[in-house]
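Folding follows sequence. Below is one example:
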Amino acid sequence: MTYRVNKRKIVNDPVYGFISIPGDLIYDLIEHPWFQRLRHIRQLGLTSLVYPGATHSRFQHCLGALHLTETAIKTLKSKGVEISEEEEEATLVAILLHDIGHGPFSHALEKSIIEGISHEDISLMLINSLNKEFKNRLGLAVDIFTGSYRRKFLHELVTSQIDMDRLDYLRRDCFYTGVIEGSVGSDRIIRMLNVVDDSLCVDEKGIYSLEKFLIARRLMYWQVYMHKTVLSSESLLVNVLRRAKELARNNTDLYATPALSFFLFNHLTKADIKGEGDFSPEHIAFNFTRLDDSDFFVSIKYWSDHSDKVLSELSGRLVRRDLLAVELQNNPFPEERIEKLKDDTVRLLGVSPEQSEYFVYSNAISNLTYSPEAPEVKILLKNGRTASISEVSDLFNHRIMSERNTKFFLCYPKECR
């Protein structure tokens, strides 16, 4: 006996209410183990150490972005933009899988698990593998994802300055953190979308909603994404991984789950991702798609009792939420103060001068709300002409939104205060 599976499911999303799965291919991709893994990848890394409600997952975000993209396509069609069924399905696949390459704790460990490799690089590698598995049914989705398809506005729905990815994560992160300043009217912005000269634009009457979106993005970056305690916890996590890799490559006995062990004991580069190194993309995909937050949680608990003082100290602080002190300011910190803190760390923690760099470090962070280098957001005026948002929005007269804002942070053990 064969059983028919109902693939037109409805999901009750806490942000948007009931959303539907728009097709059989989308359903099959959602059910795939590689996508299901995203249930165990936190959207905001260790931000829950500051905002306890921020435990939502990449899985939820991808479903939300899928829903917004489907709504956007319906809006564009209602305004006379011709989009074929194949193009619609491929765009939905591209947005659904746009974050499938995220590793544990999302951006917190990006470029650290595989040095210098972004989640976009891994996403493309995994989408290409899925395309083979699904007998080339994702070919058009790959072209839209990479921006090589001739109709550029479809790529802009997936990644641009007003893409569906940003519209969902701002609204969703605002919901789960409780930071109301990040609230955006995504419905209003989507209803105002249009296409002119093969590029996304926003109807003139939607400009105030668009301005609010840009302001919300700026506020969320400093209040949530770059909160100084988030910086402290996530940089501590990066140093835990760095120390574990150093020990693993010196053949030190080190507990880790099988998937994590692969990335600890092997030095992977971009050449491997491209199939030009010692490891094939298939081998990397096999291990990466078995890696999630739980691999690190379990391993770090073990490492807090490790014989290596640096690894056990770093891991223990993360487990206990005994984070490093952190300061944030507009100018670089004096080298004399950094060296003094390192000396104090050597004395108080009993580590070597070289090892003190795991506990005392300074770096810069920056936030660019609106990138002037990227294609500008176009506003469709009532007279049918288009103009860039910088021409018609008062917000850009003072260059507040399009200037890079850089701050410097310093982390050190609280015992050194």
Observations:
- The chain has two domains: 10-226, 228-366+410-416.
